[in-house]
Amino acid sequence: MNNPPDGVQCSNCVFYEPHAEHFGICRKYAPHPHLPHATMERFSDIRWPNVRDKEWCGEFSKNTPKNWS
To answer: Which sign, positive or negative, has the C-alpha torsion 52, 58, 62, 67?
Structure first.
């Protein structure tokens, strides 16, 4: 996969919320169930996705969406 354009990384995204050094959570979509030990037996809790600050995805946005008040 190609590298993203300059500046496209989680730490520069409007949906990124830092919570530890080099780590944060992505608030692009609603939290989802976290499966303990990668099993489908039961959910342990609901979480926002954890991401590293230098990661990136195709949903990157540095601007606040227009429909936010």
So the answer is: negative
pLDDT digits (tens, 9 = 90+) for 3-23: 888 899 999 999 999 999 999
Residue 52: name the closest of 28, 19, 27 by CA.
19
Cα radius of gyration (the chain): 14
Q: Which of 22, 23, 7 is nearest to 62 (CA)?
A: 7
Supply the pTM of this predicted model: 0.73
Query: In angstroms, rounded to a whole number, what is the distance separating the alpha carbons of residues 69 and 66?
Result: 8
Per-domain boundaries in the chain? 1-63
HSE, side-chain direction, 13 A CA sphere, residue 30: 3
Asked if residue 43 has pLDDT above 90, the reply is no
Separation of alpha carbons 3 and 29, rounded Å: 23
